Predict the structure.
Amino acid sequence: MKIEIPYNREKIALEVAPEHFGAILKLNDMATGGSRRNPVELAKTAIKGSFENFMAMPGSTLVIVNDGTRPTPTRFIMDAIGEDLVRAKASFLIATGSHRAPTDKEYQFIFGSWYETFRDRIYVHDCHRMEDLDYYGRTSRGTELYLNKLVKAAGKVIAIGSVEPHYFAGYTGGRKSFLPGVAAYSSIEHNHKMALSADSKTLALKGNPVHEDLEEAMTMVKVPVYSIMTVLDRNHEIDTVTAGDIDESFYKAVEAANGIFTAPLEEKADIVVTAAPYPMDVDLYQSQKAFDNAKLALKDGGTMILVSACREGIGGEAFVKLLSSADTPDEVLRKIEEGFKLGYHKAAKMAEVFKWAHVEGYTQIPDNQLRSIFMEPVNDLQKALDDAIAKHGPKCKVVFMPDGSITVPLVKTC
């Protein structure tokens, strides 16, 4: 059998014998048939009436959009509302969270043909510039909320995002446009420390301390907010657009996402090949989401092969320093207990898996750097797969996850 796995902007063809094939876990076919229609028309239908009323409110307009490491199809939403934003002389704030600023290519990905129109009105959030941040208060879980000053200065805010499962916030989108999107480093760090909780996991909202802290933080934002959330299908085309109140649009998008991003699996496999597709392959820090989803499909003692270009290397200096400073995964977890820093949540989630699985990486990261963080580098993906099959024996099964970053395996329990 031939299986295609994405790598950067290309695909790698792998061969696997039928007796070793377990499953291909992909995003489900279009839940609503949305992407068979014009994505701009989908957006216009979602915002009809409510967006016009929102734009009629007094005051300046600020639009918060995701950075280039997210698959959010902002450019199509812009095609639906761009002329309104031109008339409103809207400004834009890139929700980088703790990430770097976008590259020129990423600006084109985000804004499409609208980039030249608005480029002089686009601002990039910097979570470290405290002089550019306003204080909003303290959540009941102790997060001191600081947000970019442009938020409070605006008369109204439009948040454009996408909703898919998230490995510790439950889902992306909605409230995440603000925290971590345009928040202070310290605010992000305190919120993300809650990712160490066992209740902070993919698909979980109720009882998830990360999510509940994010929702509470949003209650402190008093400026009017209009939310436009997208849900993508397996071809990364728009399936669903929800719009309006930030909470209502988020939960409607979650319902659509559940029909797309979860993939049923009869039983766990001995080997899982999981890919972080472009643009989520920017670095290992972001690619970890493909790693975290894949663990749900892997047997104890199994082999995971992560396929990700990691075009900009490891990313997240704190988490890689922690991993490489320890001799064992248990030592990593002990160090995290002694003192948390932003990025350590990634290290914790990875270290837990390293305790019971063998993990290999097909990436552009130097071999010695991968080995320093408990991952075995592979330079020939087919050979790595063949070797893993030989290791696990004639009855072993392989599961392939070409959209590993956003596909959540649901293993049959009975």
